[in-house]
């Protein structure tokens, strides 16, 4: 029996058992992020224990933090910020990058040259340094974080999509469409995008992982999500003193970050794709 458990034939995608496990973990965290206010055992900011950094117990499954707050509740609520901000950032980055990449491949000429060189220069700025400068200068509201993360990763998405689109743009069915007099919007929507969607989805997942790690890094440095809210990176930072106590308050947010990023990699590593052949 084949190990393939599901397929999306329209996109040329298959998910084997490893990818299915990754998808299940991702869906679990998405469900936690959505339902956190309903399923969290304690109010997220309420001090529920007199002793800080308590170990795991029947009352506090993941112990308590540096103020005596329930870590399970805070990790559940932190999922809303980690998953939500990262998903919004990668969606905006890939939308901008893929759209501009396909247009540049179809138009070519000076437009392609100038846009590519500009985004190459922008992409040469270290991502963490750029994020630190923007967030420190403008502030760390949720909107600023999302836009900053999108700007950091849009150039890479552009280069990836453009490279794919240039190859598809040289195919015969695209030449036929151009001879018919089809416009840029039609070429991008009907001819280019359907034939690069597989690798674009894989790139989307990879950039999601990058954004989760960068957001966690910014929060760890105190420039991400600000109190009283906290994403998983902020939870690690604020409970660092618990390392000397062996407190689970440091371990579980780190495990949450690791489980999400590894599961996304498990999924995208097991999504083979094929380019649709218009000659079929």
UniProtKB/TrEMBL annotation:
Keyword Disulfide bond tagged: no
UniProt cross-references to InterPro entries, sorted A to Z: BP-dependent_transpt_permease, MetI-like, MetI-like_sf
Membrane topology: Multi-pass membrane protein
GO cellular component: plasma membrane
tRNA processing found in the keyword field: no
Keywords: Cell membrane, Membrane, Transmembrane, Transmembrane helix, Transport
Protein name: ABC transporter permease
Organism of origin: Jiella flava
Origin organism lineage: Bacteria, Pseudomonadati, Pseudomonadota, Alphaproteobacteria, Hyphomicrobiales
């Amino acid at each position: 029996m084949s190990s393939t458990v599901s397929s999306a034939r329209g996109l040329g995608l298959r998910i084997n058992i490893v990818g299915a496990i990754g998808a299940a973990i991702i869906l679990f965290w998405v469900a936690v992020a959505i339902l956190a206010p309903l399923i969290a055992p304690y109010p997220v900011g309420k001090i529920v224990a007199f002793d800080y950094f308590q170990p795991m117990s029947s009352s506090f499954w993941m112990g308590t933090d540096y103020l005596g707050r329930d870590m399970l509740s805070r990790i559940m609520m932190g999922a809303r910020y980690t998953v939500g901000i990262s998903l919004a950032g990668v969606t905006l980055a890939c939308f901008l990058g893929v759209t501009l990449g396909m247009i540049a491949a179809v138009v070519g000429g000076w437009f392609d040259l100038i846009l590519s060189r500009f985004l190459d220069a922008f992409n040469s700025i270290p991502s963490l340094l750029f994020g630190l400068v923007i967030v420190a200068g403008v502030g760390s509201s949720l909107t600023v974080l999302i836009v900053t993360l999108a700007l950091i990763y849009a150039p890479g998405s552009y280069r990836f999509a453009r490279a794919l689109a240039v190859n598809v743009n040289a195919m015969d069915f695209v030449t036929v469409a151009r001879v018919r007099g089809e416009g840029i919007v039609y070429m991008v929507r009907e001819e280019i995008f359907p034939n690069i969607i597989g690798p674009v989805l894989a790139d989307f997942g990879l950039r999601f992982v990058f954004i989760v790690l960068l957001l966690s890094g910014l929060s760890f440095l105190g420039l991400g999500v600000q109190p009283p809210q906290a994403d998983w990176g902020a939870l690690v930072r604020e409970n660092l003193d618990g390392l000397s106590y062996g407190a689970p308050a440091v371990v579980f947010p780190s495990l949450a970050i690791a489980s999400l990023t590894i599961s996304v990699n498990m999924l995208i590593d097991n999504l083979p794709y094929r380019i649709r052949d218009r000659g079929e």
